[in-house]
Each structure stands twice: as structure tokens, then as C-alpha cells.
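Folds abound. A case:
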Amino acid sequence: MKYLKTLVCLVIVLALALSMTVTSYAADATIDTNQSGSMDIYKYDLTRAAADKVWDASAYVSSGVYDDGVINALGSGYAIQGVVFTYLRIADICTYTSTSGDTRTNMVLYGMPMGGETTELLTALGLTYDNAHHNDQDVYYFASDTLITALEKSLSSNATTTKNALEGYITAHGGVALPETDNYGHTSASGLPLGLYLVVETSVPENVTCTTDPFLVSLPMTTIDGSAWMYSVTLYPKNNTGSPTLEKTVREAQSSTGKHNGSTDNIADGYAHTASGSDGDVMDYQIISTLPTITSTASQLTTYTFVDNLSKGIAYNRGDVVIEFFRDANCAEKLATWTEADGKFNVAYADAEGGGSTMTISMSDTGLAEINTSENVYGMSGVQRGYSGCTLRITYAATVHSDASVVYGDGANPNDVTLTWKRTNTEYFDTLQDDCHVYVYGIDLTKEFSDGAGNFDNVKFILHNDTDGYFVQAALVDSTYYVTGHTENEADATVFAPVNKHVIVKGVEDDAYSWTETASDKGYTLLKEAVKVVITTAEGGTCDVCHKSLLTASATVNGNAAEMTADGDSVNAVAQLTVVNTKGFDLPQTGSNGTWIYTTIGIVVMAGAAAVIFFIVRRKNGHR
């Protein structure tokens, strides 16, 4: 699995600006306490911008000033809407004067009152009151470089723990949420009392994978050249962005010759975008999704829902949904298995428009909690949390109907799935879609007599699948036989009889078949050998949903190309063949004038036999 590497996202401008405030200033370089401060934040998708080569983060130095260059480069197409920042004033800003002999040194410090809230904040930053530069009447004053270094160190050693601690701290102690970023990626606050502010990202839309690390803003802050105070600060924090993945595949459940080995644990064992099956067959489905990155509470998933749709020719085998989590993309290192009985996801079924059916699989609160916070993968260290970046696999089964609702031929039976996911800003969501296709075919055997005079009621056939080694079982509905099952015993095979000269069988797959004629009308010869029908598929066309290859079918009869006719709007659906019975050879005609010779011969033979017996008896009695 390719794990995302998350960089520490501390806003560079703040580190530079706050470090500038440590510099000694002349007595007249004072802050105008009558002013208020403001902050403007612009959120851009720097991950995508860098991939598109329109942005080089290493070449940009943030200054706290509105930058036309940033807006021109990123303002079109890279803005992230729906991000919510929350701010909290955590310290006063003041000038501290230190006198040593005749020397007076002025410097800016940030004062925090001693108490529970400050203690909680310092703990999250890895500081104590001993790290203060000065204290006065239970107010502790910290230098900016002390605060910056502590925040950077905490984020570097355990970014997620630090993020969660500061996100929780700011929410618990009256943090104020900025308006969510608009379609320009912008949000702002004005009229703010001067001081030091902690800013955290508390709510994000679905495409944000790594929240901006908490950062500190000094209002006012000095210009990058150290020449003046700025009361309005513009910030360009970054986010890593990305999306989960989604793939749906299918296979025939029966372990048939050359198709798969019957393994339910191997995601590559016969599963594909397309599969063929017979009517009545059970089909195995799997849905595989790589979970998005989760780094802290703000980036946790609040919705992860799959809506699966089956076409009307296939029905869910209800109650068999299983969800598995794996450490790797090949689904070899299993982390957890959920069944419907575990209560970690819910399954709901409904009829779909057009006659199909829908299955909705939604994570419950318990399931989301495990996905977001499980320590089975990353423990409590590192940037990622829960099942971040792991692979989720859903398996279930469905059965192909044995009736006319199935689509036969190249039209196939499409089965799509849509994944919807949300993060903490639940007003924003995104979806992914994928699908797979099940192909089913038919055979139309036309029966004829060479003289046109035979009785079709006396004709019988059986059908054998040579590829998979079974006899076909089917049920007659109106004038069509629909496949219902398979059997290895010839005695249990369905006996097919023509209806209006045709034996139409629907529900076969792309295999080799043999038609054996077991009875014909009196006076007509049976077929010497079985008729071989082979249905073959090849790539043809592209799926509109996932852009993978679809299939098209062709057929041969006894090795010769055969026509495949349409079934409704679906082409190449039914393989065509014709069977002709000829008259048998006549025996000599019997009856009327043709029988007298046999009667005469019989009388002569019987008379001769009687004479022989008479003479034998006479000799035994002494007559010579």
C-alpha cells in the first residue's frame, strides 16, 4: 500500500512573524492599543496545484500580506470551499522592559494567566510554567520563539495527538468559528481584540485528507522586514487533498472449469469487471475501496455509504453482506471482519425504478468510530489514525433470475455502486461510482423434417454443457425454456421438446454445448452425433461508467460460424442452429398380395414336418 506522507503544515508566515517580535525595539516602536485586528484566510488545494505544476511551495515565502501572485496562481480552480477555522484568543500581547544597569531592553511577550485552561494548553504544547520568560502576579509571559518551537516539536513528534488536543481545547474553551470558506476559498474575521490567537481547522469537506496543523497568529504582527506593525494579517494555510477509491467486480459463484479456484479470500480469483452466468446461477460480488486519510478529529469520516444497484434480472441473496478491512491493497493482511449481526453497519433493501433493486450499506456510529479511531494499524503515534489508507472489502451474493427479466446478449445486466463520503463538514460530500456486468445468452434450435411431414411431439433433446461438465435443467414458460439449474446425472436432465418447431433455451453462458437428439418421429433417423454449439465472448466497446472493456458474443455450430440474433434491444443474444431429420430406409412392403407366398411356404413346411413325424412313429411300431 502506498501511504500518504504528511508534511507539518504550520503556516510559515506565522513562524517568521512571531519570531520577528522577539527582536528588541526602540521605545517608540509601540503598538497602537486603540486599534483592533483582523485575519483573512485563503484555502487552496496545494496538493493538486503542485501536481498540475502551477505551484511550488518551496519557492514561496509567506509574509502575512495579501498576495496577488497567490490569488492569480491558485484562485481559479484550486479553492477549497467548506473549511471551517475556529480561533481563540489565548494571550495578551505586551511590551516587556528589562533594566540592567543603565540599559533598558524592550521585547514583546505573550501573557497567559495561571490556571486550568492555560495549564491544559501548555500541556498540549509540551510546555510548563517553568518555560515562561517572566511572571507577574500569576500572569506568565512567554516569548514567541518558545511557543513556536514547542508547537513545531509537538506536531513533529505526534501530529495527530497534538491536533486532537488543540482541536478539543479550542472547542471546550469558547473558540469562535469563522464562516466556512467560500467558493474562492476565503474566510475572515475583523474587529478582533489584540493578542495572540490559536487557530485550528475544526471542520473540513470530503476532499481534505490532512487538516492544516494548528497555528498561532499575533495581532498585530510585524512586517517581514521588521519595520512596522500589521493589524490585518492574510494567511494561506495548505491542505493535503485526495479521494478514496472504488471498484466493483463479479464472478460466477460455482467453481467452474477454467474460471476460478473457488477461493473467497483471494480478490483476484476470478473476479472481474465482466462475468457470464446461467439463469439460476449465484453470482459473487465484491466492492473494494481504499479509505481516505484520517489525521485528526476534524478529518474524521461522518458518512461512508455504499448504494448498490442490481438490474431487474438479478436478485440479492439477502443477509449475507460481509465487510472486511485490510492493511494492504491486495487484501492479504486482514485487520477486522464485520457481519450484519455486529451492528457496525446497516443494510437496507428497496425496489428501484425500472424493476431493479437497491441495497444501501451505511456505517453505523459504532462502525465509524472504529474506522476513525482504531489503534490496530498506527497505534497512537504518527500522523494517520484509524483505518486511514486501509482497504475495505464488501462481499455479497446475488442470483440470476430464470425468466424474461434477464437481459440476454451484449446488453448485459449492469450492476453499479455509488460511494458517498463526508467528513466533519457534512454539508459537503462527494461520490464515486463503479459497475460490473453479467452476461447471459440463449440458443434457438430450429427442428425440421426433410419431407415436412414429421410429428414434432415425438422429438426430444437433452443439452449438455461441455465446458463445465453438466446437463442443463430448465423450465418451460410459454414457448421458451429458462435455465433453472445444473445436474451431473443425465437421468435428471431436462428433456427439451420443440414448441412451434423451436427449442428456445435462455440462460446459458459463454461455453461449449452439445445438443443430443434422444427421440424423433417414427420413420425418421436420429442425428448420428450431437450438435456442438460454442458461444464465445471478446472485448467490444467501453463502459460509460468505469471506461473498462465490455464484451460482445459470437457463436459456432459444429465449428462453423453461426448467426447470433438480437433479443429486444440487446444484440448478439441468441445462437441459431437448425436440425433436420431425414426419412429412414424402407423395408420390403408387407400386407395383401405380398403375403401369399409366405403363407404357401408355411403350409408346405408344416406338411413336410407332419409326414416325417408319421413315418418315424410307424417304424417304432414295427411297421416296415
Q: What stands out?
A: The CA atoms of residues 81 and 183 lie 5 Å apart. The domain at 441-581 is CATH 2.60.40.10 (Immunoglobulin-like). The chain has eight helices and 37 strands.
